[in-house]
Amino acid sequence: MAGVDYLADERNKAEFDVDSMKIVWAGSRHTFEVADRISKLVANDPAFRKDDRPMLPRKELFKNTLRKAAYAWKLITELRLSEEEASKLRFFVDEPAYTDLHWGMFVPALKGQCTDEQQSKWLPLAYKMQIIGCYAQTELGHGSNVQGLETTATFDPQTDEFVIHSPTLTSSKCYHTVEVLCTWWPGGLGKVSTHAVVYARLITDGKDHGVHGFIVQLRSMEDHKPLPGITVGDIGMKFGNGAYNTMDNGVLTLDHVRIPRDQMMMRVSQVTREGKYKQSDVPRQLVYGTMVYVRQKIVADASCALSKAVCIATRYSAVRRQFGSQNGGPETQSAHYRKSYTGLIQVIDYKTQQNRLFPLLASAYAFRFVGEWLKWLYTDVTQRLAVNDFSTLPEAHACTAGLKSLTTTATADGIEECRKLCGGHGYLCTSGLPELFAVYVPACTYEGDNIVLLLQVARFLMKTVSQIGSGKQPVGTIAYMGRVEHLLKSRCSVQRAEDWLNPSQVLEAFEARAARMSVSCAQNLSKFSNPEEGFAELSADLVEAAVAHCQLIVVSKFLDKLQQDIPGKGVKQLLQAVCGIYYLSLLHKHQGEFLATSYITPKQAALASDQLRALYSKVRPNAIALVDSFNYTDHFLGSILGCYDGNVYPKLYEAAKKDPLNDTVVPDGYHEYLKPLLKQQLHSAKL
Ligand SMILES: CCCCC/C=C\C/C=C\C/C=C\C/C=C\C/C=C\CCCCC(=O)SCCNC(=O)CCNC(=O)[C@H](O)C(C)(C)COP(=O)(O)OP(=O)(O)OC[C@H]1O[C@@H](n2cnc3c(N)ncnc32)[C@H](O)[C@@H]1OP(=O)(O)O
Ligand SMILES: Cc1cc2nc3c(=O)[nH]c(=O)nc-3n(C[C@H](O)[C@H](O)[C@H](O)COP(=O)(O)OP(=O)(O)OC[C@H]3O[C@@H](n4cnc5c(N)ncnc54)[C@H](O)[C@@H]3O)c2cc1C
């Protein structure tokens, strides 16, 4: 029946004020209002329809994305949307497009790595989208190892130009050859970008100065054809239907392409008219600054992707009933459920379902808050860099790299778990979960492979441990290393399950585990005469130490959030329970590490599990309200299983009827392939 809210009973159970929680989730009342308005604008505009995506052939899919991006830009200009509103529009349109790379990487690269003069030339063009750019760093043979890139930019003092060249090129006209060492992967490059920030080894006077960024025009502004010396195209279909195939990830070869000298991005270092290489007094690492920016954005996005999957799985788990009986009769599986419920059991009431789902719900909130904090850290480091204070750059790099790795791994795994939590129906495209997984999972690889990034964190940790006792006091997220002597000796004081609700106790447990794992790695490293050899040999342990450090950051930022004034009936109490689920489920999952480092005893680990179960019971009646607090429209969720009213089954049935295979009762191909087969069997049966 239209208009019935099948989840109304669930919503009535909520013990907190959902409207207040919506504001906590959004970050502020203002942000909530903007997001609410823009999400409705997108949801109510048929131009942004997306349910057909998994069915569309690639060319149609891509053209459709071009149409949506052009239409979005028209709205942005006609409605005079602010940057914040435009960014929300991109978010709620929910379709990867070349615009992500233009705004998310090309523009930030221009801002971070160009001189003021260069910015004043390029930024106005990019802001008006009179040029469209991408970030062309990765090559066919080199992604993680940025220092290993092989494209060259050789200065020609005769003409005051750089000659950009993809080496070991055996053919510049086709991709079939084996030894083409081209640029490979950049989004927006394949079919759209007019310009690219290309990373190449700078060569002046025969000397290699390492990797630098250059602005290269790729296509004619008249007819969009590649300029002379440039071969460019799409790299082909990627994982999943729809999903990331809306993006034109590209391949590029540059055959002695000439660009003017002032198209080297010269904030970090310069080449003079005479061909002299000069380094500014800013650190070379700023060449990597765009990656720091995007990693911070990716952390903020992780909570969105995970919360979407969790919202679908939570609503569906409340709708779906399995076992029990219509009247609570004898088929009911266990006495516990028979006592508690009449009728069929909602799968959300199974403790196993809660044990898989609620830690993901808690992670979505945890990632939201750590993402907010990381944005603050990034803003802070940017302000410092502007006045040549580079002191916090290593920490910003470690935090963005580590949290990007931690949150994207957990989110990709979490989306897949949500699919399984929805049983068979989770496997249908109309559940929204297959496409969400396919579109999200490359986040574990792009912007830095997650293991490679954790190894960067481990280097930072080992450096910090080696400096203990040198008088240099660790600060920020690594400040706990300053108390390492205490953390190595201390023992957990938990005696009752409720003691695990004490924030200072929890913080010390995560600090002690992280510190002990880092110190143990450092001790093992010191046994090697060659530190790099030791680092390679111990890299699996180092990655685990890095994860422990990153989890500590997330836990501590969630606990910090709870120290703030959080208005709204019951909101803070619920967030305390959610936070408890986050850290206790981590403690349970990694209890081997907490036990092996001897900070906790097996008895204390068991008490943590008792407390965790108690928190599941606290959160259960609030589960639907907690996911309603994300304030997602049905359009944004793109899932029949997660629809707001919970009216799942009729919608599944209607959607199945609309599948193109059901356009005819007898399928195409019957006459060619089925009828002869069936006839032949009939014939032989008669024999
Ligand atoms: C429709 C509406 C339209 C309107 C739209 C409006 C708005 C939209 C707005 C925005 C869009 C928002 C978001 C978009 C978000 C996402 C975009 C979408 C998808 C993303 C696509 C992904 C793109 C890419 O993948 S780009 C390629 C990324 N590549 C990598 O990440 C490579 C990984 N490798 C590395 O990072 C490095 O090479 C390394 C492994 C870290 C280096 O290792 P190593 O060789 O050991 O180190 P090196 O010698 O190079 O350096 C040593 C030294 O430097 C320090 N270091 C390293 N990296 C950094 C860094 N990034 N920052 C600071 N310091 C760094 C390192 O620690 C060492 O320091 P020390 O010597 O030890 O002190
Ligand atoms: C969807 C998508 C979009 C992308 N968009 C862009 C873009 O816009 N611009 C751009 O320039 N690039 C882009 N990329 C490329 C991306 O940044 C790289 O793929 C990424 O940095 C990983 O590098 P790689 O492919 O070389 O992986 P590899 O480094 O080859 O990784 C292969 C395996 O080796 C392991 N490994 C590698 N090095 C080490 C090490 N030192 N120690 C231990 N293990 C190691 C990794 O963990 C991984 O398991 C994109 C990639 C994807 C998938």
UniProtKB/TrEMBL annotation:
Its main location: other. Gene3D superfamilies: Acyl-CoA dehydrogenase/oxidase, N-terminal domain, Butyryl-CoA Dehydrogenase, subunit A, domain 2, Butyryl-CoA Dehydrogenase, subunit A, domain 3. This is Acyl-coenzyme A oxidase. Residues 17-132 form the Acyl-coenzyme A oxidase N-terminal domain. Residues 502-679 form the Acyl-CoA oxidase C-terminal domain. Belongs to the acyl-CoA oxidase family. Keywords: FAD, Fatty acid metabolism, Flavoprotein, Lipid metabolism, Oxidoreductase, Peroxisome. It comes from Salvia splendens (Scarlet sage). Residues 288-462 form the Acyl-CoA oxidase C-alpha1 domain. The keyword DNA damage does not apply. The active site is at E447 (proton acceptor). It is found in: Peroxisome. Its cofactor is FAD. FAD binds at T138, G187. One of its GO terms (molecular function) is acyl-CoA oxidase activity. GO terms for cellular component: peroxisome. One of its GO terms (biological process) is fatty acid beta-oxidation using acyl-CoA oxidase. InterPro entries: ACOX_C_alpha1, Acyl-CoA_ox_N, Acyl-CoA_Oxase/DH_mid-dom_sf, Acyl-CoA_oxidase, Acyl-CoA_oxidase_C, AcylCo_DH-like_C, AcylCoA_DH/ox_N_sf, AcylCoA_DH/oxidase_NM_dom_sf. The keyword Oxidoreductase applies.
